[in-house]
Structure formats: structure tokens, C-alpha cells
Design a protein that fits this description.
The chain is mostly helical. The chain is built from 27 helices and no strands. The two termini are 24 Å apart.
Length: 506
């Protein structure tokens, strides 16, 4: 129900304020955050700040020791329980190990008890949200939905501005539930608005509250995945990462969002910084760094540099997140470097172990790649795709045009080239050229399960929206929603089309 990337980032940043000193507060913890945590002992508050500093730097054992000490110094405060629970949730998300999730649920129960006992409403609601996210990560969707409903109900009852974060998350999630899960959403009473949720998250990210930085992260990922980055959230997230260069977690999140923003070279810088920081003593691994640094290099056509990172992730990560896509890219990199035998070995390992667009599409492509070696046209397509995804629009057009114009090629190959050329021209705001190429993909998609036709309709709607013809945009977005074929990335397209209709007020 909730996108996996959104699930990760919603728990990825701790309560960490700008340096701030007031009567009764300590540097590094805002007054509002200290009140929400009910920290009355100055030594406990100082130790809390240090523990979260360790957590940000991914010295998780040091962080856990620190939060335990907070509990000894200020036993009446739920701050210790909150810190222990949150750090364990990070571990569970990054490792996907059942025993870590089990430990999280124990600590989550403890946090809920402590928050309810002390009347810490915001922490109690956040605990419910964390539980929903953990269930969602484990694909236990009915339990996730029930916990999410409880969390949203609690956030709605809190008047404190800190609750804007939770309300915003609930609004975004409720407004972006894909068609296949709407029955469950209706059963659980979920309603929402992506636009309304984004507005709440943006305000929350600017407030001096407990969950300010959490709100910034949630705002950034929702803006990127559902709103085409129209709210300009990425640079704020990058600035947050640069303010804490020792944090591999923040470096990963910055790099991830820069990749979503098609800024591959900048993403490489951020992700290399994160990779370097995990080499320090006592810093735990952030495995997703390998997958995304490999992707950043891949998008810059640095296949030889990307391969060791992609292979290491495919070989050593024991969970399922990013595994299908990363394994596929390892195979594609081998084939681009001329090693078909090794490429086939990786293609055979690609499995859609989750009902996610990304996994299903990767498995389908791997199966197709096993049928025959890459042709020169397919190589050009891959280079053009990587160039566009890395932010090199003119290079993408140069690489893709010979494929678009070659009438001897299969229709599906030309449709993909036309779609990707249209996207590059759209980015360059050459609207007529973009629409012409999108129409080629719409008219002759070549494969009813390929994304090129349906996604071209959507992006044509974006161009109509950008040039002021909202009625034409509405018709195209509605046309997208009328198509119930389970083509590649159909769930993501449905979410975006619904968000677009809401955005233009139609």
C-alpha cells in the first residue's frame, strides 16, 4: 500500500534539531523537541543528543548504549524508549532480518506503554506509525493497515504542530493507494490527498518541532515519487546531508534523491561520501549505498566502476529490497562490457520476490535478455536510457535518434526509443518535439505490457499542463486511469495520474 522507498525514509532521520540553546534546554535539541520527549534532566538531555549523534553516524551500538543511559538518568521520560525503538527500526529496515523485526516489536510495545503512561501523545502516535511501517516492510498489509489507521487517528487528535508530520504522511499515503489495494483502504477507512499531505509535510519540515527532519525526508520522497519534484525538496535534503558529512545515512538519502532528480554526478559525490564514512571504526554498514552508488555510476556509463558495487550488493544482501533491479543492472553492465556469459548468470538470478512494479519489471526484462544477446540498437537504447536518467538530455537524444528512425527495427524497440527521446525533449522544454515522439510510442507501442505507450500518454498530459491547456491535460490523465492493463510500472503510473488530476483541480 505504501511505496517501499517512502517506508524507508519515513523512519530514516532521527529527532535532531539545529544547535539551539534556551533556558532549560541543551545545545542540539530544540526546546519543542525536549518538551515532547519530556526530558527534565539536563544530563539526560545531553546524553540523548550524543546518542542521536551516534545514531546519525551509524554507530548504532554506541547509540543504543547512550539511550539506555538516558533511561537511567531520567527514568520518567519516554525518550530512552523512543531512541531504542527508532534505532532498532532502522536496523530492521536495512537488514530485513526477522529477529531484528521481532526485537523492534518488543521495543515498540515498551515505547507505547511509556508514552501512554506519561501522556506523551506525539510519541504514542509515532510509535503506532512505526509499527505500521514495519508491518508494511514485511508485507503484512492487513496489520500495517490497522496500525496505520490507529496512528492516523491519534495524529488527528493532537493539536501540537508536531503532529503535522503524521497527518501529512497519512494524507499522502491515503491519496496514493494503488488500485489493487483500494479495497483494503476502503475497508480500513483510508482517505487522503497527496497535495494536502505535501502541504502539511512542507509546513512540518519548517517548524521547530520534534519531527521536523522526519517531515523533510517524507516531503522529499513524496514530492519526488508522486509530484515530479515540483515542490523543489531535493536541495533542502542535500543541504541537510552536507551539514552532517559524517552521516552515511543522510549521505545515502541525499544520493537517492539526487538520483530521482536525474543528477547522477552529484549523487555519486554524496554516495561516495557515505561509502567513505562507513569505513570508520564501529560504523555499521548501510548496504543500500552499494546499490545506489553502482546505479549512479551506471547512469554515467561507468559500467566497469559500477560492476563491483552492483555485484557485491547482489551477492551479499540477504533481504529483498533493490535486489531484482540491482542484479539485473549487474547483468546489463557485464553485457555492455562484452561478457555475455556472466551477464546471463545474473539475468538468471533475477526474481520478482515482491509485488512491486520495480521487481516485476526487472524480472520481465531479465527473462527477455536471456533470449538473445544485445543488438546494437538495444545497446544504444540502454546508453540513451542511462544518459537521460543521469541528466544528460542532449546526449540521450543523440544516442536514441538512430533507433527511432530505423524502420527495420521491431516496433517495441522504436517505441522505447521514441518514449525516451520524448522525455529528453520534455526536460529541454522542446514541447513539440516531445509530443511528436510521445505520439509515436502511443500509436505503435509494440508490446501491450511495455510502459512506453501508457507512460507517453501521461507525459503528454504533463506537457499540456505545463503549457496551460488543463482540459487537454485532464483528458490525458483520465485516459491513463481508464487503462487497467497490468503493463510495466502500472501502479506507479496510476498514482502519478491521480496526483496530477488532484493537482490541476480536475
Amino acid at each position: 500500500m505504501i511505496r517501499s522507498g517512502l517506508l524507508l525514509v519515513l523512519v530514516a532521520v532521527p529527532v535532531w534539531g539545529q544547535a539551539h540553546v534556551e533556558d532549560g534546554t541543551v545545545e542540539g535539541l530544540t526546546a519543542t523537541a525536549q518538551r515532547s520527549l519530556q526530558l527534565s534532566d539536563t544530563r539526560a538531555a545531553e546524553r540523548y543528543v550524543q546518542a542521536y549523534s551516534d545514531a546519525l553516524d551509524f554507530r548504532l551500538e554506541d547509540a543504543l548504549d547512550g539511550f539506555n543511559e538516558v533511561g537511567r538518568l531520567d527514568p520518567a521520560s519516554p525518550a530512552s524508549a523512543y531512541g531504542l525503538e527508532t534505532v532498532t527500526l532502522w536496523r530492521a529496515f536495512l537488514t530485513e532480518e526477522d529477529e531484528v523485526f521481532d526485537r523492534f516489536y518488543e521495543l515498540n510495545d515498551s515505547l507505547q506503554t511509556a508514552a501512554d503512561r506519561q501522556g506523551a501523545e506525539l510519541l504514542g502516535a509515532t510509535a503506532k506509525l512505526h509499527r505500521a511501517l514495519a508491518f508494511g516492510r514485511q508485507e503484512r498489509y492487513t496489520r500495517a493497515g490497522n496500525s496505520f489507521r490507529e496512528a492516523c487517528g491519534r495524529f488527528r487528535e493532537i493539536s501540537d504542530t508536531g503532529a503535522l508530520y503524521g497527518r501529512g504522511v497519512c494524507e499522502v499515503a491515503g491519496g496514493s493507494v494503488p488500485r489493487s489495494y483500494r479495497w483494503l483502504a476502503r475497508l480500513l477507512g483510508f482517505r487522503g490527498s497527496v497535495a494536502g499531505g505535501l502541504a502539511s509535510l512542507e509546513v512540518a519540515s519548517l517548524e521547530d518541532g520534534l519531527l521536523r527532519d522526519d517531515a523533510l525526508i517524507a516531503f522529499a520522497i513524496a514530492d519526488a515519487t508522486l509530484n515530479e519534484r515540483r515542490a523543489g525538496s531535493v536541495d533542502r535534503l542535500v543541504a541537510l546531508s552536507e551539514s552532517r558529512p559524517s552521516s552515511p545515512l543522510l549521505a545515502y538519502l541525499a544520493g537517492y534523491h539526487l538520483l530521482l532528480d536525474r543528477r547522477a554526478s552529484e549523487a555519486e559525490v554524496a554516495l561516495r561520501r557515505g561509502a567513505e564514512s562507513v569505513r570508520a571504526p564501529d560504523v555499521e554498514a548501510v548496504p543500500f549505498l552499494d546499490a545506489h552508488l553502482g546505479l549512479a555510476l551506471y547512469r554515467q556509463h561507468k559500467f566497469e566502476e559500477a560492476l563491483p558495487l552492483l555485484e557485491r550488493y547482489a551477492r551479499t544482501f540477504h533481504g529483498r529490497a533493490l535486489l531484482a533491479q540491482t542484479t539485473l543492472r549487474a547483468g546489463l553492465s557485464h553485457e555492455m562490457l562484452g561478457d555475455r556469459r556472466r551477464a546471463e548468470g545474473f539475468y538468471r538470478r533475477v526474481r520478482a520476490s515482491r509485488d512491486y512494479d520495480t521487481d516485476l519489471s526487472a524480472a520481465r526484462e531479465a527473462e527477455r535478455r536471456l533470449e538473445a544477446p544485445m543488438t546494437s540498437a538495444e545497446r544504444a537504447l540502454l546508453l540513451g536510457e542511462a544518459a537521460f536518467d543521469g541528466g544528460s538530455d542532449l546526449e540521450a537524444v543523440r544516442l536514441l535518434q538512430p533507433v527511432v528512425t530505423d524502420s527495420e527495427l521491431p516496433a517495441v524497440v522504436r517505441a522505447e526509443a521514441a518514449y525516451r527521446t520524448g522525455r529528453a525533449y520534455q526536460s529541454l522544454e522542446r514541447w513539440a518535439d516531445a509530443q511528436r515522439h510521445f505520439q509515436l510510442a502511443i500509436d505503435r507501442p509494440g508490446d501491450p505490457l511495455a510502459k512506453w505507450g501508457p507512460w507517453s500518454i501521461y507525459h503528454s498530459g504533463e506537457i499540456e499542463e505545463a503549457t496551460g491547456d488543463l482540459d487537454a491535460a485532464r483528458q490525458l490523465y483520465e485516459r491513463v486511469l481508464e487503462d487497467e492493463t497490468e503493463f510495466d510500472y502500472h501502479k506507479a503510473l496510476e498514482q502519478r495520474a491521480r496526483t496530477a488530476l488532484e493537482r490541476i483541480g480536475r
